[in-house]
Predict the 3D structure of the following.
Amino acid sequence: MTHNASDTPPLKAWLLLGLLALIWGSSFLLIKKGLIAFTAMEVGALRIASAGIVLTPLILPKLRQISRKHWLKLACVGLVGSFIPAFMFAIAQTQLQSGVTGVLNALTPISTLVIGVLLFSQSARWAQWVGIFIGLIGTVLLITATANGSFQFNSYALLVMLATLCYGINLNLIKHKISDLKPLTITGVSLLMASIPAAIFLFLGTDFLVHAQQPDAPLSLAAVLILGIVGTAGALVIFNYVVQLTNTVFTSSVTYLIPIVAMLLGVLDGEPFFLQHGLGMLAILIGVWFANRRGRSGLAGIPQRQK
């Protein structure tokens, strides 16, 4: 039974929310491990292909429920919500720490607000603009952090920001154009559509089969398959279940947990952590909180991990 927004979330919901944060927070470290043996393009393609394939049995029965008017919109959702970001994140992490990438991903709710205002005639309150400004300050601190406190811009961070803009477009498309479909149907069908070109590209457009024979390949292959199957398909099912148990506002709070998990796992894996990193992460989380306060639709705060 679905709980009302005023109900206290059950313990099961809190436990699943924590599990979701661990799964999605670890996805950036899994990308890092995948890049040991495979190229960024191979990691992105394998991630989407594996996620789409594993969801196929769940999604096939739903295909007949979809009308002709929905197909193009679902294809767009698959493109901007899954396909493009998967490659953007993988390319970015060839030059960015996994923890930093995880924190930058928390800009998704802010990107959703900006896209909603610019492209979908959505109004914004002053507090939300304050949140955007604080979040951008945090982003600058995060992507220029160095050991001696000097500023050194890493242009690969722009790829992560582009990915969060894709998520912003995706969430607004879902909210404004196909809100009559269930979340699981939207994400599953769009992901299935994205997985077909991803699989074709993986086997015909890359040297994946050659790289899969390297000594480091089993670790990298396992990391990316876990990323696709558990981090995308499995997390999607958990996410929708938590929404049913509680509401989108409660579930969207995972946005604040993901960057903390990502940064901690990065540090445990030997990545440096500077004071500037901490200040940047704090500013981004404060900015997201401002931009995602009550009065917004719960959908806007939901992080995308169809990844």
Notes: Confidence is low (pLDDT under 50) at residues 1-6, 295-303. The chain has 14 helices and no strands. The two ends are 28 Å apart (CA to CA). The first helix runs from residue 11 to 25.
